[in-house]
Design brief:
Layout lengths: L2 H9 L13 H11 L20 H49 L5 H33 L4 H8 L3 H4 L1 H21 L18 H6 L4 E9 L2 H14 L2 E11 L2 E10 L5 H12 L3 E8 L23 E9 L6 H13 L3 E7 L8 E9 L4 H15 L2 E6 L9 E4 L10 H9 L2 H12 L5 H11 L6 H9 L6 H10 L3 E9 H11 L3 E9 L6 E6 L5 H15 L6 E5 L5 H6 L2 E5 L3 H6 L2 E3 L7 H4 L4 H10 L1
Parallel strand pairs: 9-10, 9-13, 10-11, 13-14, 14-15
Antiparallel strand pairs: 1-3, 1-4, 2-3, 5-7, 5-8, 6-7, 11-12
Helix pairs in contact: 2-3, 2-4, 3-4, 3-7, 4-7, 5-10, 9-10, 11-12, 13-14, 13-16, 14-15, 17-23
Length: 623
């Protein structure tokens, strides 16, 4: 609802004798709309209007001349309106003083006088809001910024300070409280809810005069001074802080506050304007009744200042990552995609500390009917085009409360495929590698391919495994990642379709808690491999099962489990975990996994888990 319509609606609640004394907001708005179109001297607001072939000097001169004429005329009109409502206020305040004295002498009902005072307070706030909004429209259409100095100037008037009216209200409330206490004498009832002589409760009397809502924002180069200045004003006027928001760009700070004004002291805004002038700040505020917005404040339906105020939304976090730096081209396409999907950005947080921007976490407000599965293909396309990873996760309590991370081993924690390394040592590398690649691409059943590859190893000396251990190359960032996670209290496991001796070696090197893999059968004397495995085969189903077994053993919910892998036999495990990450994975795995990382370092997983680079560095010191 536009404020003009809202004001007309609210005026119907006042006596007929009050109607002519309200601010004529419609007249002021109509004047601005009629006369100040294409008049703004704030030329940066409309740069495309001006062409090189135009006479810039003439156009600017014409606008300045129009503003020189129209703005004083508007101010004179506004002055006349303000004088009118201030004169009425002072007359009604004088009448209230007389009635208050009569009420204190028991010649008049205190509650009736208090109702008149509250009505006058509401009259003041509605009209002050109208003045502020009219000035805001003037500043927008003229390009001049007169609102703050005008409100400071207006603070000299009685209806703005209204100290006498506040005194009258305090005296009436005190008298009504005395009546309530007297009527409750000798009773065991709760005096905070004691009825007054007219049946109303004491708590209702104090709070029943309604709540005014204001959004205040102050931006400037003196961060802590600006915050302190705003809070001092709010304290002085006994405001209730509902919510706040703070953003900083080096020295420049923007501090926004949503407040309830129980005393309807419009003098708050002149104090804020003076604070803005003192600290070279830019003040903006919006005053409105709590009923003016569809959303109700201080309820579960409330939108925080940091949230996009749209209904039917779900919160997600998107982590965008590129070790070579996030390019403007990617960021432009990414934001364009968000706009096309009607996804609102609520917060942005840089996670890295590199010389160029590498990783940003976006908090998003997503339409409820849009799911990650529906947009996965589009996100993969954007990621592939810019070699930049985008991971989309629900923003819930479990996102930064993970407790278990399960890794695949081959091509994940280590850069090699261990069976290929064993085959290389025995001269059958090409045959084994061909089978391995077909299995990882999902072209062969894993159990079948494992049996075929292990059969080729028959007769291989067991001592070869020791040599393979020495040749293993850990993936960049593996040690850093595991140290950070262990310092943060995580349980870590490797579940591999490879072989247990090598998985145990990796477990020891990285400080993991669990290692599961296939067990190779050896000859009776323990000297050579016989070309078979023993026990259950660690295939895709077994990996997912082991993940769940470890979680249950540690008392960890599946919502707190992360899985990392690269091959087709990791898909069930990735799907089982609440966050499944395809790390430099095969195409089929990338298409199905919830999150993807196509960067060199495993340490980037920390970003997806919500840790900044600074936080990860702190965890290294604890490890």
């Amino acid at each position: 609802m536009k404020y003009g319509s809202y004001l007309e609606q609210q005026k119907t609640e006042f006596p007929d004798s009050w109607q002519d004394h309200f601010l004529d907001y419609t007249m002021l708005k109509t004047y601005l709309k009629t006369h100040m179109v294409d008049t703004s001297v704030h030329l940066t607001a409309c740069p495309s209007t001006f062409k090189w072939t135009d006479s810039f000097a003439d156009t600017l001169g014409m606008r300045l001349e129009r503003v020189r004429t129209l703005t004083p005329e508007f101010i004179r009109m506004l002055d006349a309106q303000v004088v009118k409502l201030n004169t009425f206020f002072e007359r009604m305040q004088s009448e209230a003083q007389v009635l208050c004295k009569q009420a204190l002498r028991a010649e008049h009902e205190p509650q009736d006088v208090l109702n008149d005072v509250l009505r006058l307070e509401r009259f003041v706030f509605l009209n002050f809001t109208g003045v502020a909004k009219a000035l805001k429209k003037h500043d927008k259409w003229s390009g001049l910024f007169v609102r703050e100095p005008y409100l400071v100037r207006m603070s000299e008037l009685g209806f703005v300070a209204s100290t006498e009216l506040q005194q009258i209200k305090s005296e009436l409330l005190e008298r009504l409280g005395q009546h309530a206490a007297a009527s409750d004498a000798g009773s065991s009832r709760d005096t905070t809810r004691a009825p007054t002589p007219n049946g109303r409760h004491r708590a209702d009397i104090v709070s029943g005069h309604g709540v005014q809502t204001a959004m205040v924002s102050l931006r400037g180069p003196h961060g802590t001074d600006i915050i302190g200045g705003v809070l001092t004003c709010l304290s002085k006027h006994k405001c209730q802080i509902v919510d706040f928001s703070l953003s900083r760009l080096h020295h420049d700070v923007t501090f926004g506050v949503l407040v309830h004004l129980h005393e309807r002291s419009v003098d708050l805004f002149s104090d804020l304007a003076q604070t803005a002038q003192r600290w070279d700040g830019t003040l903006s505020f919006d005053v409105q009744d709590a009923q003016l917005k569809a959303t109700k404040l201080a309820t579960s339906a409330q939108y925080a200042l940091s949230e996009a105020p749209y209904a039917q939304r779900i919160k997600y976090v998107a982590t965008v990552l590129n070790e070579r730096g996030l390019s403007p081209e990617f960021l432009s396409e990414w934001l364009g995609w968000l706009l096309a999907k009607k996804i609102s950005v609520e917060q942005m947080r840089r996670l890295d500390k590199r010389t160029s921007l590498m990783c940003v976490e976006f908090r998003l407000s997503v339409p409820r009917d849009l799911t990650p599965d529906e947009v996965r293909a589009e996100l993969i396309a954007i990621s592939s085009a810019h070699q930049t990873d985008v991971a989309l996760q629900p923003d819930n309590v479990f996102r930064r409360q993970k407790r278990l991370v399960v890794f695949d081993m081959d091509s994940t924690l280590i850069q090699q495929e261990v069976i290929d390394e064993i085959a290389r040592a025995t001269g059958i590398e090409e045959q084994v590698a061909a089978i391995t690649e077909r299995a990882m691409q999902g072209e062969m059943d894993f159990g079948e391919s494992l049996a075929a590859r292990v059969a080729l190893l028959a007769g291989t000396p067991v001592s070869v495994l020791e040599g393979v251990k020495q040749r293993l190359v850990f993936t960049e960032g593996a040690h850093y990642l595991c140290r950070a996670l262990k310092s943060a209290g995580f349980k870590l496991a490797v579940i591999s379709g490879g072989f247990l001796p090598l998985a145990k070696h990796v477990k020891t090197e990285l400080g993991l808690d669990y290692a599961f893999a296939n067990q190779l059968a050896v000859s009776a004397d323990g000297s050579v491999l016989v070309g078979e495995t023993m026990g259950p085969v660690v295939d895709a189903a077994r990996k997912a099962e082991l993940l769940e077994v470890i979680a249950q053993a540690e008392g960890i919910a599946i919502d707190q489990v992360v899985a990392v892998g690269d091959g087709a036999n990791d898909l069930l495990m990735l799907a089982k975990a609440s966050l499944g990450i395809a790390f430099n994975a095969k195409p089929r795995v990338q298409q199905q996994a919830r999150a993807r990382i196509n960067q060199k370092s495993l340490a980037n997983i920390l970003y997806l888990m919500g840790y900044s680079e600074s936080e990860a560095a702190e965890l290294q010191l604890l490890g």
